[in-house]
Design goal:
The protein is an alpha/beta fold. 42% of the residues lie in helices and 15% in strands. The chain has a 6-stranded parallel β-sheet, with helices on both faces. Bound molecules: farnesyl diphosphate. The site of farnesyl diphosphate has 20 residues, from helix 1, helix 2, strand 2 and helix 3. Farnesyl diphosphate (FPP) binds next to helix 1, helix 2, strand 2 and helix 3.
């Protein structure tokens, strides 16, 4: 049985384990998130080099709002700093940045930094880096269902003509294709409300490695594993 000679076009990553990485060193959780910014840079470069077209990172879930105010503030300060400091590099390297999620809930400074990065990199086409922020698939699907119901009620949509493409276009993740490879670091083997629609036929790869320790060699191992798999998409 042959595998996939091509690299995955769309890689999604659940970057888990920052807190445990910090706690095992006697450090506050915020240090784990800080350390987690480095693999983002490393994996983006590696993905770009391999020819990956879409990289989608779970940076903050709808459930993460329940964390302490300090941790949430700290994470958004870090994300804002990342956007401010990396946008020029993203622009120069052909990467388009997008935020996906309930972005209106984000702190204003993060929203502004995100809008600026999205606008500056809008014409880039080599790789789309999507940051899932205040993201949860169930909220995303519920919101899409509400939008579609309102359109149907207003007479702008005939329910009989509703297709998978119509639904997809109403998701926060609208333009994203199906995920080919999902990587989750940190040892847990679950999806945690991430990209439920797009993961329908994704290959799943779980590793014990905590996100701050996840390097280029780990990423290449995940891609090599993906390339050895026989994808059937429900066929024989
Ligand atoms: C999960 O680890 C990680 C997060 C909730 C935040 C992810 C954020 C980063 C990796 C920061 C850098 C990101 C960018 C885009 C610059 P956890 O805190 O749940 O870890 P634990 O399971 O060990 O507690």
């Amino acid at each position: 049985m042959s595998g996939n000679p091509l690299p995955p076009a769309h890689v999604a990553i659940i970057m888990d384990g920052n807190g445990r990485w910090a706690q095992s060193r006697g450090l506050p959780r915020s240090e784990g998130h800080l350390a987690g910014a480095e693999p983002v840079r490393v994996i983006l470069k590696a993905a770009h080099r391999l020819g990956v077209k879409f990289l989608t990172l779970y940076a903050f879930s709808t459930e993460n709002w329940a964390r302490s105010i300090d941790e949430v503030d700290n994470l958004f300060a870090l994300l804002t700093r990342y956007l401010d400091s990396e946008t020029a590099e993203l622009l120069a390297s052909g990467v388009r940045l997008k935020g996906v999620g309930d972005l209106e809930r984000l702190p204003k400074t993060t929203r502004l930094a995100l809008a600026k990065a999205e606008e500056l990199t809008a014409a880039n086409q080599e790789l789309t880096l999507s940051l899932a922020l205040s993201y949860g698939s169930r909220a995303e699907l519920t919101r899409a269902a509400q939008d579609l119901a309102l359109k149907a009620k207003a007479g702008d949509l005939d329910p009989a003509n509703l297709t998978e493409a119509t639904l997809t276009s109403h998701l926060w993740t609208g333009g994203l294709p199906d995920v080919d490879l999902l990587i989750r670091t940190g040892g847990d083997q679950r999806i945690s409300n991430f990209l439920l629609w797009h993961l329908a036929y994704a290959e799943l790869y779980f590793t014990e490695t905590l996100w701050p320790d996840f390097g280029e060699a780990d990423f290449l191992a995940a891609v090599t594993d993906f390339q050895s798999r026989h994808r059937r998409f429900g066929r024989v």
